[in-house]
UniProtKB/TrEMBL annotation:
Organism: Intrasporangium chromatireducens Q5-1
GO molecular-function term, one example from the UniProt record: peptide transmembrane transporter activity
Name recorded for this polypeptide: Peptide ABC transporter substrate-binding protein
PROSITE patterns assigned to the protein according to its UniProt record, in alphabetical order: PROKAR_LIPOPROTEIN
Protein location: Cell envelope
Statement: the UniProt record of this protein carries the keyword Signal: yes
InterPro entries on file: Peptide/Ni-bd, SBP_5, SBP_5_dom
Domain Solute-binding protein family as annotated: residue spans: 90-459
GO cellular component: ATP-binding cassette (ABC) transporter complex; cell envelope; periplasmic space
Pfam families in the cross-refs: SBP_bac_5 (PF00496)
Keywords assigned by UniProt, alphabetized: Signal, Transport
Amino acid sequence: MQIRRGAAALAGAAALGLLVSACGAGNTGNNTGTGSTGGGGGAGGGSLIVGTTDKVVSIDPAGAYDNGSMQVQTQVYQYLLNFPQGKNAPEPDAAEKCDFTSPTEYTCTMKDGLRFANGDPLTAKSVAFSFKRIVDINDPNGPAALLGNMESVTAKDDKTVVFKLKAANDQTWPQILVTSAGPIVDEKVYPPNKVLSDDEAVKAQGFSGPYTIGSYQKNQIAQFKANPSYNGAFNKPSIAQVTMKYYTSADNLKLDIQNKNIDVAWRSLTPTDIESLQSVNGIKVYTGAGGELRYMVFNLKTMPGSNDAQKLAIRQAMASSIDRDALSTKVYKGTFKPSYSQVPPGLPGANEAFKALYGEKPNVDQAKKYLTDAGVSIPVSLQIQYNPDHYGSNSDQEYNEIKRQLEATNLFKVNLQSAEWTTYSKERTKDSYPIYQLGWFPDFPDADNYLSPFFGPNNFLQSHYSNQEMNKLLTDEVTQGDKAKREQLLGQIQDKVAKEVPTLPMLYGAQVAVAKDDVKGVQETLDAAFKFRFTSLSK
């Protein structure tokens, strides 16, 4: 998805001397409408059941930065800007318009008459409160890292909110407003200093998106009901009620869509299941824009190694020992492809730094040299943690294959451990896991979204990686208005990641959903915004 600025916004930027370019400011300036896909019409009737193996960490945006929680938040919260179905740039949602009013100020004017489902008014004060509390709470599982460039947020009045930015000319700021940091919450309901529980959030009905939540049993059943007062960037719902059914096993999810007991299966069927479902009458398999990344994280404090040099050598030796092609073909049947950078191929500025430095195939001699040169005793004992449910049931196979590959070098001895997602997502932030699996579902389609949240100050990985040179490179690329120069900086950052290996990228994949033949709109929501919108679905 290419991000564009509207002509009027460009004119305003030129008058202010801004360097904001086509890479990230969005076509939001002076756009007072909601686009052809927004607003209008009323909710239709009928119901749908959508199945998933994803888990919800928190409905409250301050306490969640994961795909399962984002799935719920997409349906029930408004954002200042949003990606409507099939659109290539953020458009106004709760805002009437947004634009840079100085190099370090981004100003949004709110629509009139917005309300939460409980009747409370949604104003600029709600917006300022929502963004400030995410930073103030700074929950370990929250999205505060996305707001690293926000110095302050202020409601000038009920209709005007101003973001003051630390670095000028932020190429990504309008897109950040669409991310997990962007949902607007009710300041009369959500506490300023702690995360609201799911049950309290449902009871309070501080929702203003296309749907609200009716009955709710966390990670079992969630019932979404069309919100008749919604006025934003998405369509009005055509389905009056959508039930999200949560599965502990991809096997059961596969059986229910195969037997047509549910209408849609969205995350995460196994590659074998997807292959077999393609021949089942009455259902269709849909694939869409990808960007999902699979990688390992190294806790630089607790990973093996007596000093920084030894820890680096171990990471580099592991990078020299992984066979990504085998993971792709043996485990994922090609539904995931090898990734040789933290930025998946296809995005402007992406390179293959890990291939250039460590090779396309395992190199045992090189791996051994890294270890011996640093004085590391061989074999190295590795404790690797992975999650068996959040990233699909093939995680078991994936990490057993990784264990096999590492031990085949005779350089490593691997102890695999696993934990269910709600436990896993909390424990990884407590220095409990020396080396662990994560996946990444993009917040927005820009290379920076695969870099700044991982390696910048207060990064969400909390892996003890901190590097002033990296911080400067990240600031420079985000604020660089020249496309070619920005891509050069993005390449330098990826090269630095490959040399230091704070993470080890391995695979990237596409979105896949399976639906009954009478369900429409599935293909349309599988776009690069990575938002599965119930508003796109109809029967």
